[in-house]
TrEMBL record:
Pfam families: FAD_binding_3 (PF01494)
Organism of this sequence: Pseudomonas eucalypticola
Cofactor(s) it depends on: FAD
Keyword terms: FAD, Flavoprotein, Monooxygenase, Oxidoreductase
Example of a GO MF term: FAD binding
SUPFAM superfamilies named in the record: FAD/NAD(P)-binding domain
Annotated protein name in UniProt: FAD-dependent monooxygenase
Length: 508
């Protein structure tokens, strides 16, 4: 009988990232997918700054930057003319090494992750269907149907459902999926074309016509059209073609399609499952939460789920942590998912609402107020931090404690590149570590040595204070780059106390 440490169901970005991060931490997962071939079309495009930061841990970021497209600006259109130009190239400057919006289509993204996983000696088992599973307390027994009709019984320590919105794993758990479905039907078209909207920037039509956004892709004249259909045509969504789509929004944005590479329609839901974990089974990505594409959050949130869970599973499986560490996965991720669904729902509702008042807000007030608001540094920084997921934090987690400067336990470690040292370079080891910006006392050095914690001491620079860090304070950083403990008072005993009551055990 085949036995694995972690069986991952679903080989989209979430499942692939989970597998890669497990491998990097000494765990060999098994990954299956019902589809016989990798996806050749996709809806997800944006790779947010926080994802690029995390990808830096496994040296994935460079490929995404080289083969993707950096969006220079967003343009808002009304009645066939651009009315607002919002530069993006420096919107997150000083906050992250990746202060911009990066486009890298999901199908290309998946192929890259599959190649990296294969280089680690792990291949996706294609055409394999999960037919059932039973949590036996100390392991999970699964039934897998192979393409040749063979039904395999296998065992795994943990089961990870990364199998999308119609998740077999979620159905098997009986976990509810409350929420709703938007009335509009979305369409996606990958095109080769020309016109003013094929200039490498993002363009959005705000008219009362069907919603339409033109996303730039790498290469000359390539773009992704994402729009909605909301009249009687929505009833026959599955049979729609590009020729059936209203020309109003397309004409308003002066889009000339020379070649259609592919076209698809789909409905969008806004739902969050009731449970992210039941015993030895976990839900991640679209299996746990789905929402509108507003803000390009979906794929990035699934990747965040995967990295959050991966280091915890790896710690438990390799004996570096108590199993109670896994209790933190659901509370850390489910709150963000609920907040995200509510936020994207409000944005999407505003962008697609009908009626004279909604039309006035979108076409008159929004183009006037948005550029003025973004001219304010504080507003621009808040918007970037929110969309890029830099503000995502685990302050209310049982793993988070203390505060020093403006940084609380549970916050993302602020990025600083000062004095020739980038503090994120240290995070590539995927381990618990201690950061001190200033000086570390001998008592703290002794605790770190005893507990098997690598200590990184950075010479103090003004940039550290500007980022919110406190001089000489202690920051205990988790393997995913979030601060577990922050304290400026008696750092050595505070660290010892935290470790004594945390599920993390010292590295032998």
């Amino acid at each position: 009988m085949h036995r694995s440490d972690v069986l991952i169901v679903g080989a989209g970005p979430t499942g692939l990232v989970l597998a890669l991060w497990l491998v990097a931490q000494g765990v060999r997962p098994r990954i299956i997918d019902l589809n016989r071939q990798p996806a050749t079309t996709s809806r997800a495009l944006a790779v947010q700054a926080r994802t690029l930061e995390l990808y830096q841990q496994l040296d994935l970021t460079g490929h995404v930057l080289r083969h993707g497209h950096t969006v220079a600006a967003i343009n808002l259109w009304v009645k066939g003319a651009p009315v607002a130009h919002l530069p993006l190239t420096r919107i997150g400057e000083g906050l992250t090494p990746y202060g911009f919006l990066q486009i890298f289509p999901q199908d290309e993204h998946e192929r890259f992750l599959i190649e990296r996983l294969r280089a680690e000696g792990i291949s996706v088992e294609r055409g394999v269907e999960l037919r059932g599973f039973i949590d036996q307390g100390d392991q999970v027994q699964v039934q897998l149907l192979h393409p040749d009709g063979h039904l395999e019984s296998a065992e795994t320590l943990y089961l990870a459902g990364c199998d999308g919105a119609r998740s077999t794993v979620r159905h098997g758990l009986g976990s509810g999926f409350p929420g709703g479905t938007y009335q509009q039907v979305f369409y996606v078209a990958d095109v080769q074309g020309q016109g003013p909207t094929f200039n490498g920037e993002l363009h959005v039509d705000l008219d009362e016509a069907d919603f339409l956004a033109v996303f730039p892709l790498a290469g000359n004249g390539r773009a992704r059209l994402i729009g909605t259909v909301r009249d009687e045509r929505a009833a026959r969504a599955e049979s729609l073609r590009l020729e059936d789509i209203s020309r109003r929004a397309i004409d308003h944005l002066k889009v000339q399609v020379d070649q259609l590479n592919w076209f698809s329609t789909y409905r969008v839901h806004h739902r969050v499952t009731e449970q992210f974990r039941v015993g030895r089974t976990f839900l991640l990505g679209d299996a746990a939460h789905v929402h509108s594409p507003a803000g390009g959050q979906g794929m990035n949130t699934g990747i965040g789920d995967a990295i959050n869970l991966a280091w915890k599973l790896a710690s438990v499986i390799t004996g570096r942590a108590d199993e109670t560490l896994l209790d933190s996965y659901e509370p850390e991720r489910i709150g963000f998912a609920r907040q995200l669904v509510a936020t994207t729902d409000r944005v999407f509702t505003f962008a697609t609402a009908q009626g004279p008042v909604a039309d006035l807000l979108r076409t008159r007030l929004a183009p006037l107020l948005i550029p003025r608001a973004l001219a304010l540094g504080a507003v621009r920084e808040w918007l970037f931090r929110t969309v890029s997921q830099l503000t995502l934090n685990y302050r209310h987690s049982a793993l988070s404690d203390g505060a020093a400067g403006h940084v609380h336990g549970g916050d993302r470690l602020p990025w600083v590149n000062a004095g020739g040292r980038d503090n994120f370079t240290a995070l590539q080891t995927l381990e618990w570590q201690v950061h001190v910006y200033g000086k570390a006392g001998k008592d703290l050095q002794a605790v770190c040595a005893t507990e098997g914690l690598r200590l990184h001491v950075f010479d103090w620079h003004p940039e550290h204070g500007e980022a919110g860090l406190a001089r000489h304070a202690l920051y205990l950083v988790r393997p995913d780059g979030y601060v577990a403990l922050a304290t400026g008072d008696h750092p050595a005993p505070a660290l010892s106390d935290y470790l004594a009551r945390s599920p993390r055990r010292p590295t032998p």
